[in-house]
Write a structure and sequence with these properties.
The chain is of the alpha+beta class. It has two domains: about 290 residues, Zn peptidases (Aminopeptidase, 3-Layer(aba) Sandwich); about 110 residues, Alpha-Beta Plaits (2-Layer Sandwich). It is about 30% helix and about 25% strand. The chain has ten helices and 18 strands. The strands form four sheets. The chain has an eight-stranded mixed sheet, covered by helices on one side. The chain has a four-stranded antiparallel sheet with strand order 4-7-18-17. The protein has a four-stranded antiparallel sheet with strand order 12-13-11-14. Helix 1 packs antiparallel against helix 3 and helix 3 packs across helix 10. The longest helix has 22 residues.
Length: about 400
């Protein structure tokens, strides 16, 4: 397992933050830089049929070493990191044999991982924790997934007695901006089913995710000198604030959990004359999801009636759907992961994803794809951290799933 840490640390030092304003695929050059490094690494491991598309999709396969007719398993992770926090010049820190105290990320900037703020740290007493220096995110989402997959394959290749069917892997760009499956060639990939290695803490196993939409609202105002604005000025920023106040406060991310959906205002840019708002809308339940979208439209209609037709323009687009309806028809793939975790001494924690994953869209493209843990916490944050032993456990789970499939008599 020694090279797992080495791989991970080398990957996080490459800036692969995606960019939702870009018109290129992938959206940033850093993702291709990491992909090219991985091509060399996979070639050195001896994988076959390695391809890197011009749109940034890296695929490879490990041929079967058995004559049994076995399903082809796939494992997927994404190259990009969140654009919300910088992933440039990442300086990872490794805290071995964690003693249970607050972790100093950056003394000069007074940045700490404190037990009182992150009580889950107590679960990692005596283990190895990897953090940032507090000035960037770490990038465990999802470079941990890449390192875990590559290490699992390296272990299998180095063990000639390990029986396995054909294994395929895919590393995708731009997952964080909702484009990870845009150019994914399911037929080329060739898996009967797959798993994204993109989850959080040890034991997470997920086959449900949000239904998701993004909404842009453009608000047109009228700018007049404030000294003569009486009954003439229409402040677009204030109209936008009025719209936001119409949405249920308790349906914001900071007040929701488990299966509860939300409206999340992610951006607000404006002047008196023009303001643009961006929301993401999320709910696990398809009916509630539709109701949330309809309610936002009703709010816009109400304000257009109040302030004049075309004062507000709503553009709304669905991004992905809850993969549960696709996974339930092939639930044995969840059971397989659950058994592999139990066999390796891990308590499976089956829970809904409060977010999205490439696996959601891929499941609707004909590739059922549950999600498995990496061991990380606080993704998209400068307080992100991951436990090395949890990453090692994910390697063992992948290997055990492959073993279980190969053990079936066919």
């Amino acid at each position: 397992m020694d090279t797992l840490l080495d791989r991970f640390l080398s990957y996080v030092r490459i800036d692969t933050g995606s960019d939702d304003t870009s018109v290129t695929h992938p959206s940033t050059v850093g993702q291709m830089n990491l992909a090219r490094l991985l091509v060399k690494e996979l070639e050195e491991l001896g994988l076959s049929n390695i391809t890197l598309s011009e749109t940034g999709y890296l695929m490879a396969e490990l041929p079967a070493n058995t004559h049994k007719k076995l399903p082809t398993l796939g494992f997927i992770a994404h190259l990009d990191t969140s654009p919300d926090v910088s992933g440039k010049d990442v300086k990872p820190q490794v805290f071995a044999d964690y003693d249970g105290s607050d972790l100093v990320l950056n003394h000069s900037e007074n940045l700490y991982l404190k037990i009182q703020d992150y009580p889950e740290l107590a679960d990692y007493l005596g283990k190895t924790i990897i953090t940032t220096d507090g000035t960037t995110l770490l990038g465990a989402d999802n470079k941990a997934g890449i390192a875990i997959i590559v290490t699992a394959l390296a272990n299998i290749i180095n063990n000639s007695d390990f029986e396995h069917g054909k294994i395929v892997i895919g590393f995708t760009p731009d997952e964080e901006i909702g484009q990870g499956a845009d150019y994914f060639d399911v037929t080329r990939f060739g898996a009967d089913f797959a798993y994204t290695i993109d989850g959080g803490p040890l034991g997470e196993l997920e086959y449900e995710n949000f239904n998701a939409a993004i909404a842009h609202i453009d608000v047109k105002g009228v700018n007049v000198h404030p000294g003569t604005a009486y009954l003439h000025m229409k402040n677009a920023m204030l109209v936008a604030m009025e719209l936001n106040a119409m949405l249920p406060v308790k349906e914001r991310p900071e007040y929701t959990r488990d299966y509860e959906g939300f409206y999340h205002l992610t951006r607000l840019d404006g002047t008196v004359e023009y303001t643009r708002m961006t929301y993401i809308i999320r709910d696990h339940d398809k009916t509630k999801f539709a109701s949330k979208k309809a309610f936002l439209q009703n709010c816009v209609d109400f304000l257009n009636n109040k302030y004049g037709e075309s004062s507000l323009k709503l553009s709304m687009k669905d991004q992905y759907y809850n993969m549960r309806e696709k996974i339930e028809t092939v639930f044995h793939i969840v059971t397989l992961a659950e058994q592999a975790m139990s066999d390796t001494g891990i308590n499976p924690v089956i829970k809904p994803i409060r977010g999205g994953t490439d696996g959601a869209r891929l499941s609707f493209m004909g590739l059922p794809c549950p999600n498995i843990f990496t061991g990380g916490h606080n993704f998209h944050s400068r307080y992100e951290f991951i436990c090395l032993e949890s990453m090692e456990a994910a390697v063992k789970v992948i290997m055990r799933m492959i073993e279980l499939v190969a053990a079936k008599e066919t």
